[in-house]
Automatic annotation (TrEMBL):
<comment type="similarity">
    <text>Belongs to the INSIG family.</text>
</comment>
<keyword id="KW-0812">Transmembrane</keyword>
<feature type="transmembrane region" description="Helical">
    <location>
        <begin position="101"/>
        <end position="125"/>
    </location>
</feature>
<feature type="transmembrane region" description="Helical">
    <location>
        <begin position="220"/>
        <end position="241"/>
    </location>
</feature>
<dbReference type="InterPro" id="IPR025929">
    <property type="entry name" value="INSIG_fam"/>
</dbReference>
<feature type="transmembrane region" description="Helical">
    <location>
        <begin position="159"/>
        <end position="178"/>
    </location>
</feature>
<keyword id="KW-1133">Transmembrane helix</keyword>
<feature type="transmembrane region" description="Helical">
    <location>
        <begin position="185"/>
        <end position="208"/>
    </location>
</feature>
<dbReference type="GO" id="GO:0016126">
    <property type="term" value="P:sterol biosynthetic process"/>
</dbReference>
<keyword id="KW-0256">Endoplasmic reticulum</keyword>
<protein>
    <submittedName>
        <fullName>10907_t:CDS:1</fullName>
    </submittedName>
</protein>
<keyword id="KW-0472">Membrane</keyword>
<feature type="transmembrane region" description="Helical">
    <location>
        <begin position="137"/>
        <end position="153"/>
    </location>
</feature>
<dbReference type="Pfam" id="PF07281">
    <property type="entry name" value="INSIG"/>
</dbReference>
<dbReference type="GO" id="GO:0005789">
    <property type="term" value="C:endoplasmic reticulum membrane"/>
</dbReference>
<feature type="transmembrane region" description="Helical">
    <location>
        <begin position="62"/>
        <end position="81"/>
    </location>
</feature>
Amino acid sequence: MTEKTYLTSSITTTMTTNTLRSNGGTIATTMPAIPNSREPKNEHCLNEPCHKLSFNYYSLRILILFLLGSLTSFIIDHLLTENHITQYPKDIVKLVNTAAWIPPTCGFSAVLVGSLFPLVDYWFLKKPQEFQREWSNVMRCLGGFIGVAYAATKLPWNSNSQVSLTLALISVVLWFLFDRTFHGFVMSVLFSSIGTVFMYVFVSYGVYSFTEADFFGVRSWIPCILYASCVCFGTVGRQLMIVPEEWFEERE
């Protein structure tokens, strides 16, 4: 064997051998272990597919938000119609003394608000909103929202402006007690404004009407009711963890 051939053989042996062990003159070669690409990367996927877990996770929470929004719409609409604040056409389809389109509309709105609030927490806070994160506080917030609607419809007021100023203050207090985030305040104002515009459109097309309307065809305190509802369902969405904690952990 020439020197050149010996050198080439040595280089080849060095490149292809991972470990050389000498034992009584015998050389054993050990190759590196090749990872099995078929092994699952997530242990919980062994028992149940990940996509199925995700579907179950979100579907249950969305259903809860939808049902909660629909149920509260019955209460609010009953307060409005019982006190002759809103009126519907006589030929409108009703569902338990409520216009049939109101519960699903409020249900989808609750899903939208309850999903967007934790999503914005994810983008701006980069961590779950921990303030008042207990179901007892969520129930108090829900009671506060219904209380705002009850005060607007049941208590004697001298004028709509008096109701508007009082409810605006109460709604901000509700935000301070259960939210306290700047983006939560802005989103509640934005959604309540959009909701008021939709109400104006519905009134314009005769879907329903407000008695003693003093603000673009609606009562001037209606935006306060919508604002309180945004704070309420945003709090519910955060408590339900529409955005899983794993999302926040991945960003850290």
